[in-house]
Amino acid sequence: QVQLVESGGGLVQPGGSLRLSCAASGSTFSSDTMGWFRQAPGKQRDLVAAITSGNITKYADSVKGRFTISRDNAKNTVYLQMSSLKPEDTAVYYCRSGVTPTIWFDYWGQGTQVTVSS
Prior knowledge:
The protein is mainly β. Helix content is 0%, strand content 52%. The protein is built from no helices and eleven strands. The strands form two sheets. Strands 2, 4, 5, 6, 9, 10 and 11 form a seven-stranded mixed β-sheet that branches. A hairpin with a 4-residue loop joins strand 7 and strand 8 (77-82). The chain is globular, with a radius of gyration of 13 Å. It starts with a strand and ends with a strand.
């Protein structure tokens, strides 16, 4: 049974930073592609960033240059460093594992809320 546990969300002012973490268990973490998705109220859940087992990264255009995804295979953990946060980054952030940045396994963590507001 794969479990994904996200943490690190919170309330931050515009221009601020946060680092999200996702701890995975029950999976072949080191060989998986890992990704961060987000869902704002009334909107679909979209891919924000992904990192392959070979550390190739992919980002949504809206976060390029501001967000950085990384992974620590020894800890089975994937991170999302978010900087220069904007109100439009407000959403629930979820991590997910998969085969490639376009083929994902069908399970999710509980998510972590990120709110960017003054």
